[in-house]
Amino acid sequence: MPELAKGMENYVNNDVKAIRPSAIRDFDMKISSIPGLVKLTLGEPDFNVPEHVKEAAVQGIRDNDSHYGPAAGKLELRKAVAKYLADTRNVDYNPEDEILITNGGTEALTAITFSLLNPGDKVLVPTPVFSLYFPIITLTGAECIQVDTSDDGFVLTPEKLQSEIDKHGDVKMILLNYPCNPTGRAYPEDLLRRLGKILHDNNILIVADEMYSELTYDQEHFSLATIYPEQTLLVSGLSKSHAMTGWRLGYIAGSAPLIGEIYKMHGFMVTCVNDIAQDAAVEALNNGREDPVAFRKEYQKRRDFVVDRMEKMGFDIATPDGAFYVFAKIPAQFGKDDFNFALDLAKKAKVGVIPGSAFGAGGEGYIRISYAASDEKLQKAMDQIKQYLDTLD
Description:
The chain has 14 helices and 13 strands. The protein is α/β, with parallel strands linked by helices.
């Protein structure tokens, strides 16, 4: 096994060296070798891709659809995305130059930040939130301003938004994830309209991460792109709605001048998205609109079960409106040391969760539990957590 040549230890990008790997993946790897662990760590749907979607991919293979595609994505797929967004968001995007197919939502967000941010730009990020946001902002040289929402039920209020704008001055962008990973909180239309008005009046670019939009339970999903399409970049995909996480299929919709710049960065990063995944996505969007309904019903049942069991154990929870996560406050005797609580839970209760501090300001003292798992796993996990808490008492 080759050892790095002497003197090359520092032949790395200093900015990359300064950041840590994904705290979610890092903790998951740390505990995964524990025998008998019930893993509720990663945001991975436990359902299979719908059969008709898989068949479309198989047909693409049979048709030898194995060549470089357009960097922006197949036009057929961009048309399907445009039709879907017109039907669900009432926004008219031109598939020719206002939609970009990406290698999942992760690449979409990275391409956006590296294309549009300059050193010194200020970006608001309501937290707790998916930890990817922090490095993709800081690596551009921009300033990531974490806005702690924990005192407001894990939603950004208009008052706090205005306060942060007044405090920091010239803010360029906001990254808003709804429904939110890790809290599951969503934003009702009236609140989004109030937030949108402030963002519009201050000329702030909105990056709306709506990857979980098909998984809302107690309210209809509403998008900032519906009211302010001219200053919103809508990011979504099929990872959660159709259980296609491994297919890496995402998209960005927005005004042509911005999409044109993001297109360049996207091309440098990935050239183009997998042809076969795009074949499957066309089928999912054109003929699979009802596929997420069955998933959503099952997730809602699981949410209700987990929230009920955990509240009875004494956990403080802001009931999730969507996605498939519960964000729970850890027992008082652990203070805010969510890392050691999650580690202890894994070792003694054999249940794997993610420490809330991985998700930024306001996450400390909480754990994230993914209920994208079978009823049997969730039942077992809840029983084992209760037994663990009983031993603490």
